[in-house]
Design brief:
With 236 residues, the protein is of the alpha/beta class. The protein has a domain of 164 residues: Ribonuclease Z/Hydroxyacylglutathione hydrolase-like (Metallo-beta-lactamase, Chain A, 4-Layer Sandwich). The protein has 6 helices and 14 strands. The strands form 2 sheets. Strands 6-5-4-3-2-1-14 form a 7-stranded mixed sheet, covered by helices on one side. It has a 7-stranded mixed sheet with strand order 7-8-9-10-11-12-13. α5 packs across α6. It is globular. The two termini are 16 Å apart. 47% of the residues are buried.
């Protein structure tokens, strides 16, 4: 596996990762996302990871999966809903603590402190985050912790016990942790690098990511990275 990992932030909490021939799409919300420039029809991932059932994280999952044939990884309830109601063929239903080996490495669904209901109002299981472990030619795995929509909670330290290279953490406040609590989360996880997510999509979650980055530099040991929408970058 190549050592190069390319990331893209599509706005809100939608992320892309490219690792060799694998293209991972996290929480696809594009066509109705005011912060997005890319549209659902523009993407052809090999894997889709869904953290929870809210529309701003799952809205375009079915259409993208149906067209691309991507494998969709989600909690059991979301996977069943996509399979039965939207006829998505390649779904894998998981639960917290469960892991799956993939072409690029391994993914684990981990807890998050948040609600989760499907766009039609039905039960969406429990919200989660993802550990994406990427196998590299160096022999040392690269671990990304996508925290999803969550409050800060003490078990984040346990989730990160094997070491995290990059943390993607929400900073929008109101529906998730805000900038101040994100500093606590960063301290618990102790990543080498950290990226902000779930902010500036709508006025209620408006934040200054550069002020946040300054606070991260001053109060944690992590290196903050502030992405620009639709601009690919190499993960450190």
């Amino acid at each position: 596996m190549s050592s190069k990992i390319t990331g893209v932030w599509y706005g809100h909490s939608t992320w892309g990762l490219e690792i060799g021939s694998s293209r991972i799409l996290i929480d696809p919300f594009l066509d109705d996302n005011p912060a997005a420039r890319t549209k659902a029809a523009d993407l052809s991932p090999t894997h889709i990871l869904i953290s929870h059932a809210h529309a701003d994280h799952i809205a375009d999952a079915a259409s993208i999966a149906q067209r691309s044939g991507a494998q969709v990884l989600a909690n059991f309830e979301i996977a069943q809903w996509l399979s039965h109601k939207h006829h998505v063929k390649h779904t894998v239903g998981m639960n917290h603590g469960g892991a799956l080996k993939t072409e690029f490495g391994r993914v684990m669904l981990v807890p998050a402190v948040h609600s989760s209901s499907l766009p039609d109002g039905s039960y969406g299981g429990t919200a989660g985050g993802w550990i994406v472990e990427i196998h590299r030619s160096t022999g040392q795995p690269y671990r990304i912790y996508y925290a999803g929509d969550t409050a800060v909670f003490g078990d984040m330290k346990w989730i990160a016990r094997h070491g995290i290279d990059c943390l993607i953490v929400p900073i929008g406040d109101l529906f998730t942790m805000g900038p101040e609590d994100s500093l606590e989360a960063i301290t618990l996880v102790a990543p080498r690098a950290v990226l902000p997510t779930h902010y500036n999509t709508w006025p209620p979650i408006a934040q200054d990511p550069h002020a946040w980055a300054t606070s991260v530099q001053a109060k944690t040991a992590a290196t903050p990275l502030v992405p620009t929408v639709d601009t690919p970058f190499e993960l450190p």
